[in-house]
Design a protein that fits this description.
Length: about 400
Amino acid sequence: MAFCSPPRLAACRTPIQPAHCRLPRMPAPSPTPLTHIRPDVRAMRAYHVQPATGMLKMDAMENPFRLPADLQTALGQRLGALALNRYPSDARLAELQAALARYAGLPEGHRIMLGNGSDELIALLALACARPGSGERPGVLAPLPGFVMYALSAQLQGLDFVGVPLTADFELDEPAMLAAIARHRPALTYIAYPNNPTATLWDEGAVQRIIDAVGTQGGIVVMDEAYQPFACRSWIGRLHAEPGRNAHVLLMRTLSKFGLAGVRLGYLIGPAALVNEIDKVRPPYNVNLLSCETALFALEHAPVFAAQAAELRTQRDLLIGALRQLPGIAKCWDSQANMVLVRVADASRTYEGMKTLKVLVRNVSTMHPLLSNCLRLTVGSADDNAQMLAALQASS
């Protein structure tokens, strides 16, 4: 009768250590709430808003003009009568959408979607295009340097972001844009019109050709017109003139630069069928009662805000002329927004010098290599601009 031989211990090549020589097993680290936060989120930096107490705030492209006293009083009375114990009324929000449609000149077949500023609209666009669990990573494409929220929203929703550098003078690199669109087939392509932080309003023909290229790939173009009150033209004219050619274009605006930065109200214009789909991911009551009523009040007094924008356009041209006379300014670019981009010898030194003099501007020199030693200056009132120019001259 055959028996199986017992296994040989000698076949084991791992030496057996005496118990007193064995290393203690390290316990697994205890989980904490932070372990549940995505690693890419933990690696991010939060959006930083500079402290501005006691400063002349020329870093955020805000309208420097407040409402006239009589309108302040009328608005206060109107807001004080609101039923703050109730959610915002759909009927009242519909009235706001209708008022914005009249103000903007809504093209036929288009509709408006409201957002808590443009930032929320950008996030909702990324959310609507993301495809979690599918293995697909749709892309977002935009010229660089540009608004930081395009890339950030793409990252947070798991979309790939493709940045296409502008030319050295901050114009669109049309061949590079067309090549990137053909290669990456982005779901969303952003065209800021005018651009932030360069204040550039790009060539209309080049922009239309880029829009055409995105259309052949089945993508969506978002024309970001945050600074429309200060620009010499808007893309909404192209939506009226060639609706078929621009049927995949969404137009995004905000009332922040209109003069209501504290209200946080943005709106998206686009073909109704497309906007209806994006609207499905919008949270309920995303526009609060106070913002809705303030925006309606402002639109009822739109000529007041139009006069403020006209004054800022005048001050912008005067500011650019003065900047080009300062010996410390290496370059001052043309502007179609309420900001001016300048290059100085040492952006960090100039920024800190102006801050010491209680004038706060934006140092954008680290945002992109093309912005080396650049500062972004808000266009303010005549007095604000004079104080900013004096601080800039003393600090350059």
